[in-house]
Every structure is written in C-alpha cells, then in structure tokens.
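User: Let's play a game. I give you a shape written as tokens, and you guess the letters that built it. Ready? Here's round one.
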C-alpha cells in the first residue's frame, strides 16, 4: 500500500476535481470516485493510505461506505476523513461511531483540509497497538492511569469504569489520555488540536467541542451536568477527575 495514495469520494464534480488538483500539487497520488459503489471498487483494487469521504453520495451513502471499508481487512485501518455538509452534530457522531477518524464541514478552506490530511497520514504511519509484546496490566512497564473510578491502560488502549470496559474510538482514547495526563490544567481548544489531532489550525475549532461532548456521553453519569470534563467558558476544558 502506497503511503501517499489518497482516495477522494465526492459526487460534486467541481469540488472533487478541486480537491484532487490541490492534493496532487502536494505530491500525492490521488484516485477519485463519484459515488459509494465506485469508491468501494477503487479501494478494493488499490487500497489507499487515506480516504476523503463525502457523506451524501449516490448509489451508496458515505456511512455505508465507511462501514464496509472498516469491515474489509485491506482497508480496516485506513484513516477516513469525512467531508460533510451536514451541520447536525448527531450526523457527525454517527459517522465517527461507524469508524471515521475525523471530519471537516463544508465549506472548508484548503489549509484546513491539508492540515487534516497530513495529521491523519502521520497517524497512519504509527505502529498499531498490539503489534508489540505489551506487558500485562499492572506489571512493570505497563502504563496504567487512574482518574477516580476510571482506569486507562495505555499499552492496550483500554478504558474501564469500576472494572467495566468502555469502548472508545481511537481519537476519543487519545483525547481522554491527554486530558488525564494534564488533569487540573485548563486546556485550550488550539492546544488540544495541536497535541491530540496533531496539527495547528487558525480557524474554526468546533471539532474539539464535538469530541468533548461525545467523550462526555461515554464517561459522564449525566453528560448534561459533567463532573469530569469541565468547560472553562471562553477558553477550553479542564479534566477534574
């Protein structure tokens, strides 16, 4: 699999061609597809290093494409960046739950899209959890963090509350571990973007808010009245646990 082969799935021909043109100028080999069925066939023939996937597609929508890509061994770990015109947070979270790694909301700037692509490609080059012989939980060398009744095994990328497992997608796990490591510190959205997402972006950082609300849904007893992840109005967030 080429580390620089990207697949752009977008039914708007003008937007698709613009994205492809700009990515090729960055030196990537770029494949494209106008619908979900074609996208799956292209990905089967030449598994890409990253998929830029529109949610609203003809023939097969982006959520189904995402689910099927995650179900295939050759594309199960390929980063997926959603391109969505939907403003509803619930639609975005559904895509992330299906296995997408990040999203951008249309209209987006080229600088923002380029930053997201670079960050996801860097992340895709990192060794996957479980590729090395990790120590057993609680043994020397095992990295266990606790926050109240929550325990985090960094080596196994597992989270438990009162010994009950909590399933977290990769980005939520990274967000949680960073917040816990810096508990008590007020973390700005820009700092979280830089250290958790891996890029700096001088613009709309609403992405952080979406993920924080999603993480609260996973962790908080009452997400509407959070006790672990507190909002510092006008600044960012602070992990209290």
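Assistant: Ready! My guess for every position:
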């Amino acid at each position: 699999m080429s580390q620089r082969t990207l697949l752009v799935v977008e039914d708007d021909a003008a937007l698709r061609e613009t994205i492809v043109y700009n990515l090729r100028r960055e030196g990537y080999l770029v494949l494209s597809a106008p619908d979900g069925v074609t996208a799956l066939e292209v990905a089967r023939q030449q598994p890409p290093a990253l998929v830029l996937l529109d949610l609203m597609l003809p023939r097969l929508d982006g959520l189904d494409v995402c689910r099927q890509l995650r179900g295939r061994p050759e594309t199960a770990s390929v980063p997926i960046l959603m391109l969505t015109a939907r403003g509803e947070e619930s639609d975005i979270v559904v895509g992330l739950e299906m296995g997408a790694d990040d999203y951008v909301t249309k209209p987006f700037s080229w600088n923002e899209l380029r930053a997201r692509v670079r960050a996801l490609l860097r992340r895709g080059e990192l060794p996957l959890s479980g590729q090395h012989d990790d120590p057993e939980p609680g043994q020397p060398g095992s990295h266990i963090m606790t926050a109240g009744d929550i325990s985090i095994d960094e080596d196994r990328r597992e989270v438990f509350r009162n010994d009950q497992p909590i399933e977290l997608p990769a980005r939520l796990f990274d967000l949680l571990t960073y917040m816990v490591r810096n508990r008590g510190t007020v973390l700005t959205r820009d700092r979280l973007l830089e250290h958790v997402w891996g890029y700096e972006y001088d613009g709309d950082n609403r992405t952080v808010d979406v993920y924080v609300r999603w993480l609260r849904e996973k962790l908080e007893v009452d997400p509407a009245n959070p006790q672990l992840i507190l909002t510092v109005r006008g600044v960012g967030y602070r992990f209290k646990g």
